[in-house]
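Aim 2 progress update. The chain analyzed this quarter is reproduced below.
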Amino acid sequence: MTRKSGSRPLKPGPGVGGHCIAVDPWFIVDSAPEQTRLIRTAREVNDTKPSYVVERVRQRADRFKNPVIACFGLSYKADIDDLRESPALSITATLADAGIGEILIVEPNIQELPEALKVNGARLVDLPEALAIADIVVGLVDHREFVRLSYSDLSEKIVIDARGMWQGHRTSNLQRRVENVV
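Predicted structure tokens:
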């Protein structure tokens, strides 16, 4: 795992976000394209991850007439309120735009949704409400509150884990229901 100074190790997820790691590699590629093919390829792969997660959610949502989809997290990394360049925000907005179901958002670090999500009818809810009514749970950000969820919290849901935060559940009866997309 790579570690940025003063932060947690970087781990696979639904894409790359934030104000530097998502943007700075493109400046390097632009300045020396022939010497940075690996950087370009890595960024191209990471830039496709949000679309991949959206497609997995769409496939699962097809089972329902009007699915309730709970997106867990909007920030670009765990336990912060910063939404800049967030792949979780992009994924959630795409799902809301697609109109494939009711979109619930659980983001414990903000008080209000960005305007783009309000327009599409997405709702900011707390964790207990989302767990009570969601058909599909999409783990986008590994906030502490989400990582701590138990088997019983998720057992009746279709679970799409874009952060690998519920991999421990793979050894339980939840194994059939958790789809890791990292």
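DSSP finds seven helices and eight strands in the chain. Strands lie at 2-3, 9-10, 68-72, 102-106, 123-124, 136-139, 158-161, 178-180. These observations will guide the mutagenesis experiments scheduled for the next reporting period.
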